[in-house]
Amino acid sequence: MTPLVTAAVLLAAVTHASWNAIAHRITDKLVGFTLISGGGLLIGLAAVPFLPFPAAGAWPYLLFSAAVHMAYYALLMKSFRLGDFGQAYPIARGSAPLVVTLLAAVFAHEVPDRWAAAGIALSCAGLTGVALWGLRGSRPDWAAIGAALATGLTIAVYTVVDGLGVRASGSSLGYIAWLMAVQGTVIPAYALWRWRRETYARLRPHAGLGLLGAALSVTAYALVLWAQTRAALAPIAALRESSIIVGAAIGAVFFKERFGAPRIAAAGLLVVGIGLMLRTG
User: Fold this and answer.
1) Which residues neighbour 182 within 8 Å (Cβ) at sequence distance 6 or greater?
2) pLDDT per residue as tens digits for the range 196-211
């Protein structure tokens, strides 16, 4: 990965952790995800007229990705309801890159070299481990852990699907705009059906925060999709999960969740893993 691609993915990591923190901050998860998903829909529709239309070969990937994203949002909402942000977020994000590595090898024929493979494995081990180490002295909530792991699986699937789709699209920005427009209809439509006349009253108190989350979400994924047109999928997926450290810091500062030595150790493992992934020669 070039320095520019690396910087883009690291910026995506920060913006991704930030929008997830906003989603966790809004107590009613359906309210939060309606605003974030609906905001993405508005951004996508506003951008579509000014961007190239994705090539025909990209549309099967785009539509499949939109369906997977719906499962992702549902599982992420459940994870945030059941577990702490500083724990659910690392499990979901940390478990994804290893699956991406396997799927990318099978479907994109991208087999990492030994250094990249070691870096990906080390990053996943450290970042997933920090969430599990946080359980010491308490009984594991297997429902929360299961939901977070299932979320990680959906992340891995849509990462590979979108990586292939954006390469076939001819325009990373056109692809992300249409993806936001397609997938952004489902959750707001469900909320409108469920709340009916109460919809505006429920959304209004959190509208500003939720729409900020939407802008961060679109920015984060647009950066990742652009990067996927410039480098292999697995290292990008692993590097993006540096957002786990940002998420852990946000959890400690804003949600008063314990950071502690295990997460400091995870940060060190992440740095080593990234160094191995970016090693050349």
Assistant:
1) 44, 62, 63, 66
2) 889 999 999 999 999 9
Q: Measure the CA angle with vertex 224, ends 93 and 87; round to 5°.
A: 15
CB-hemisphere CA count at 13 Å for 21? 23
Q: Which of 275, 274, 278, 252 lies closest to 263, judged by CA?
A: 252
Total-model pTM? 0.78
Q: Does the pLDDT value for residue 231 go beyond 80? A: yes
Asked if residue 171 lies in contact with residue 51, where contact means CB atoms within 8 angstroms, the answer is yes
Q: How many helices (H) and strands (E) in the chain?
A: 13, 0
Both structure tokens of 103:
């799927």
Asked if residue 281 has pLDDT above 50, the reply is no
Closest CA to 127 of 10, 249, 270: 270
Domain spans, the chain: 3-277
- Which pair of structure tokens corresponds to residue 114? 């030994």
For residue 267, give the nearest of 86, 125, 127 by alpha carbon: 127
Give dist(CA 258, CA 89) in Å, integer.
14
Token output for 79: 């994870």
- Tokens coding 245: 């450290």
pLDDT of residue 64: 95
Per-residue pLDDT at 211: 92
**Residues of 225-241 as b/e, b for ≥16 C-beta within 10 angstroms?**
bbbbeebbbbbbbbbbb
Q: Are 232 and 103 in contact (CB under 8 A)?
A: no
Q: Taking phi first (over 0 means left), then psi (-120 to 50 degrees means alpha), and beta for anything else, what does residue 245 get?
A: alpha
Say yes or no to pLDDT of 257 above 70: no
Cα separation of the two ends of the chain = 13
- H or E stretch covering 125: helix 114-133
Q: Which of 45, 81, 26, 77 is nearest to 204 (CA)?
A: 26
